[in-house]
Each structure stands twice: as C-alpha cells, then as structure tokens.
Amino acid sequence: MTDAITAASPIDKARAVFEAEGLPMPPLSADETARLRSDGEFLFATRAIETPPYTLDIYLDEALAGAAPVPYTLFGFDGGGLASSALHYFLVEDGLAVFIQIGWGGAYTDVDDARGMIERAFAWVGGLRGRIREARAAGALPKDWRLVAVVTEFDLSRWGFVRGNVDNRDAVDFSTEVPVSKAVNAALDDLLAGRRTLA
Predict the structure, then answer these.
(1) Is the per-residue pLDDT at 137 higher than 90?
(2) Contact 99, 160 (CB under 8 A)
(3) Residue 37 β-bridge partners
C-alpha cells in the first residue's frame, strides 16, 4: 500500500491513492464526487463509516432491511493480515445495491489478475447503473424493487431482486450463479424484454 497522501480534497486524495496503486477510480456521479469524504488514509465514502467495510454482511443486512438505506458510495482499501486486504466498493442507490470485495495488497495477491478484476468490476457497475435507470424508466423494475449483487472473494458471491419495503434479511432467494455480472446482465435483459417480471 502507498504512504499517506496529502491532497486538497477527498476526491483528489482518492484519485492519488488509486493512481499510486495503478487502479482506475470507481464510477462516481457528480453528486457523489461533491459529497465524498475521506475516512482515514485509504477509505472514502459519501456516508459515515461506522463499521469497517471488510464486514460486508453488516452493509448487506442494512440494504436488505425494510427501510431503504440512504443512497451512498463507499470505496477504498481495508483489511489486515497477509491474505485479507481488499479493495471494497459498495454502492447503494435507487433500484441498486452492489457490494464488491477483491483481494488487493496481501501476500497472495496476483496484482495483475486483481487489477484486471477491479477494472472489469468498475466498468460493469458503471454500465449497470444505466441499465437499472433504464429498467426503472420502462417500468420493468418496479419502484419498490431493488437489484442486490455481492461480488466477493472472501464469501459467497450472490445476487437477487428484493422488494424494498419489506425486511428481506432472512427471506432473499439469492442466486449463486457466477459470474455474477453475466447472470445479472442476463436477468436485466429478460426484465427489459418482458421475459421476466417482478411481483
């Protein structure tokens, strides 16, 4: 990991950290960029970080609870030990909750493989945001539904559509079909073509 990087603003600091690691920045809207704040040296978010992102399930439970969480973006590096450091990227917004963890910086990390995975994950989420807006506008993704996707090297990757106004923490029938990106893209194709409906 890099040494401490001093920058004028959180977004400048984030860009410097990611550039030093040879990684692209995650997709950020203008609003997210403006609301971004740093939490320590390597974590950035548009919300307070009360729990380390390495404990992904706490953030997932929050997104599955009955009340929809306030939209946020959280990204950066967290973890400890030889095999548990990771890049974390969490995005929760209207119709979408994505949680990504990819090993980075540990003794067993193949940097080139990890870099490629991170680049593909960020590109996928960038496109996914637009597809969710498209599905919402077309009425294929009803207002009270959300796509939830977990892509992680440290637990079970999974995804599913959940109703946003009920507590789903013990009731989600997640698909474990991988790669998650391909399965989610196919499900959205089916939604937009009318081959799949949510009720």
Answers:
(1) yes
(2) no
(3) 45
Residue in the structure block whose two tokens are 């559509």: 161
Q: At 32, is the secondary structure helix, strand, or coil?
A: helix
Q: What is the 8-class DSSP label of residue 94? A: T
Task: Tell me, rounded to whole angstroms, the distance of Cα 169 from its chain centroid.
Answer: 18
Nearest to 12 by CA among 39, 37, 31, 29: 37
Rounded Cα gap, residues 29 and 123, in angstroms: 14
Amino acid letter for position 13: K
Tokens of 179: 């790669």
Decide: 38 and 10 in contact? Cβ < 8 Å. Answer: yes
Distance CA 147, CA 74 (A): 18
Quick one: which H or E segment has residue 51? none
Instruction: Give tens-digit pLDDT for 28-41.
Output: 999 999 999 999 88
Spatial separation of the C-alpha atoms in residues 84 and 82, rounded to whole Å:
6
CA 137 vs CA 55, 140, 143, 165, 180: distances in Å = 33, 8, 10, 19, 23
What does the pLDDT look like over 141-150, one tens digit per residue?
998 899 999 9
For residue 70, the 8-state DSSP code is: P
pTM of the prediction? 0.91
Quote the distance between the C-alpha of residue 30 and its chain's center.
17
